[in-house]
Structures are given as C-alpha cells and as structure tokens.
Amino acid sequence: MANDGEFQEQVRHLGKLVTQFDELPDSAAKVAGRELVQLLMEVHGRGLERAMEIVFDAGNFAPGIVDKMGQDPIVGNLLLLYSLHPDEFKIRVQKAIERMRPRLRKLSCTVELEDLQEGAVRVRLSTSGHSCGSSTNDLRSIVEDGMYEFAPDVTSIEVLGLEEPTPVGFVTLESLLGQRLAGVGTGNSLERDGVD
What are the residue boundaries of the NIF system FeS cluster assembly NifU C-terminal domain, all occurrences included (predicted)? Predict the structure, then answer.
C-alpha cells in the first residue's frame, strides 16, 4: 500500500505523463489513449460514487467515517478528483488553517483567513510584536503546504503580513564608503563624516 509521500509522487508523475501525452502529435493511438483514460476515469468514478452511497446509507452505523475519508490525504484527494469530496472548498480551506495554527503558534505567529474568492485564498500572518524566529520562506512554506494538503484545488495563495527578506550580502553605499549621503540632488550629494 502506498504511503502519503508515495501517493503524492504518483500523482505528480501522472500529471507529467498526461502533459507528455497531450504534447504528442495527433494520431489514432492518441485518440484511443484519450478514450481509454476517459473510460477508466468514468469506471473508477462510478465505483467511488457507489462506495460513498453505501457509506452514507450506513448512517449511524459508521459515525464520522465520511469525515475521516475526506481528511485522509489519499482517499480525500481521490474523492476530490471525482468531485465526491464531502467538504466544500471553503470548509477545506478553514480546516487547513486550523491544522497549520499550532505549528505557526510555536513560531509566535497567528494566521487568519482574509478572503476567499473562487479558488483564490488570501491569509494574513501576524506576530506577537517580535520576530517569528523563522524566515519568510519558512512561514510561506508552512501556509502553502498546509493549504495544498486540504485544498489541492486552490488556484492561488496570497500571504499578507510577511516581510520581504533583505537581500543577503547587500552592503549599503554608506557603510561601504564610510560616508553618509546628504543633499542628494542638490549638487552636494556626498558628505564625508567629519569633513566639511
């Protein structure tokens, strides 16, 4: 049985194969291959739909089972692929935010949903008045990874409240020359410290 990482790798590989297939020149083999994939999708989709109906019909005999199926990274993504996921997009985004909160809290950060428009998500990160103790890229990765885990169909993620990192190795002209810039644009642009 594939674990979560293997499944995600298989999904990525499948996406690459589909792209390569679409780039092939038109031919009878390409048409047959496309029909084969479509037929397999329909057969698997019908099977999954029937499985979900059986679970729903179980009612109180399987409390919480539908929610567990939706939260499982493998089953949930498969249900999403066939439009059978039990949670709508907004609910999955909210669950993603709840899941990433404890990890961000350890970095003295909080996260709130700012806006949700179709597939585009905007969240805001806030600190408790001091540095999160983590880089901007680390915080962005936590948000993006958490969001894609629950809502892989998100089309864009905007993270507000992140400070853009200062370019590494950047040395100001002032510190390099031991001078301070003064009177820029007045014809007296450089004034050396201690020198008139």
Answer: 93-158
- How far is 10 from 3, CA to CA, in rounded Å? 11
Please state the length of the chain. 196
pLDDT tens-digit series, residues 84-139: 998 999 999 999 999 999 999 988 899 999 999 988 999 999 876 555 556 788 88
Edge-to-edge strand list for the sheet holding 120-127: 109-117, 120-127, 156-160
- Residue type at position 168: V
Cα 31 vs. chain centroid, distance in angstroms?
34
Residue 57 phi/psi, 5° resolution?
-65, -25
Q: Could you tell me the two tokens for 43?
A: 């057969």
Average the pLDDT over 38-49 and give the result: 92
* Rounded alpha-carbon distances, angstroms, from residue 131 to 8, 139, 162, 168: 33, 12, 11, 18
82-87, Cβ contacts within 8 angstroms, sequence gap of 24 or more: 82/41, 82/44, 82/45, 82/48, 82/49, 84/45, 84/48, 84/49, 84/52
Given a contact cutoff of 8 angstroms between Cβ atoms, the answer to whether 114 and 124 are in contact is yes
Instruction: Tell me how far apart the alpha carbons of residues 106 and 108 are, in angstroms, rounded to a whole number.
Output: 5
Distance CA 135, CA 159 (A): 14
2 contacts: CB under 8 Å, gap ≥ 6? 10, 74
